[in-house]
Amino acid sequence: MMSILTHTLTVARMNLFAQVLQQVTGAPQLTALSLQTLQINVGLRCNLECRHCHLAAGPGRREEMSWQTMERIWSLVEQWGIQRVDLTGGAPELHPRFREFVTGLVERQVQVQVRTNLSVLHLPEMRGMAEFFRHHRLQLVGSLPCYLEANVDAQRGDGSHQQMVAAIGVLNQLGYGREEGLQLDLVYNPGGAALPPNQVQLEAAYRRELAERYGLSFSRLLTITNMPIGRFRATLRQQGKEGHYWQVLQEAFNPATLQGLMCRHQLSMAWDGRFYDCDFNVALDLPLQASLEESASSLARRTIRTGSHCLACTAGSGSSCGGALAA
Length: 327
Prior knowledge:
Elements: H1 4-13, H2 16-25, E1 30-31, E2 37-41, H3 67-80, E3 84-88, H4 98-107, E4 111-116, H5 129-135, E5 139-143, H6 149-156, H7 160-173, E6 184-188, H8 199-214, E7 220-223, H9 230-239, H10 242-251, E8 266-269, E9 275-276, H11 279-283, H12 296-299, E10 303-304
Parallel strand pairs: 2-3, 2-8, 3-4, 4-5, 5-6, 6-7
Antiparallel strand pairs: 1-10, 8-9
């Protein structure tokens, strides 16, 4: 039997999330519950250089997924019976073979979701992209971190808000956010070291403000907690707030969020073809511990690789690629 001293030392070596999980649930690990979604990061190139980006994406990044890896993904979705692929980046639309890759997924009866920063649609090389979205009835998740211009431009650069609002207007004209089956979700993330407000209440404010100010509409609002890694962690350190933010996350741990954590229902693939439990683990280079030679059913029950950063997904109402996880 483990001695009290040995147990104490073992707990002390755990990451902060594992320590909290051990205290609350009696076990320091998470296991997956299903394999519903394959999230693909096709590259780190982006037209923006956002302060909160956990992957430090930007115009100067050149990492991008090879066509060989994209063809492999086509095989994997068939082999594993994946019904949904979630495309992210960087700005995924900037991958030179984005349209060809998406078309192949759609031909395989896969529902495709694209995470867009919206402003990218104004680039000359993106001509016809909004129409491409509609033609293939892709689900869209558009980042609009606030409905106020000053707040968005502070995070994403001058003029970003105006471009994003204009892009939503174009998508609305094509039926997105208005017609059934043309999903346009918007994403909010806090401007600083705080948890997001209540998702339901904030969505009501977004609907009111975007409708009154610009005549815009959308499907749902998703609130996502800033992850203390990448550029956001560097900002916290510059402001002397990193310790405070970790404390906020730890004290706000909510066990009701555990069931819906994205890592328990999906796999993530980085641009270089390596697999991870989530996109945040991609940023921290914490690859999947399970073998891809395992069956889909085994991968759906794998042990998940966690770290202190997981506290951001379990704080307050929780945070995932699909927004809040608990009331």
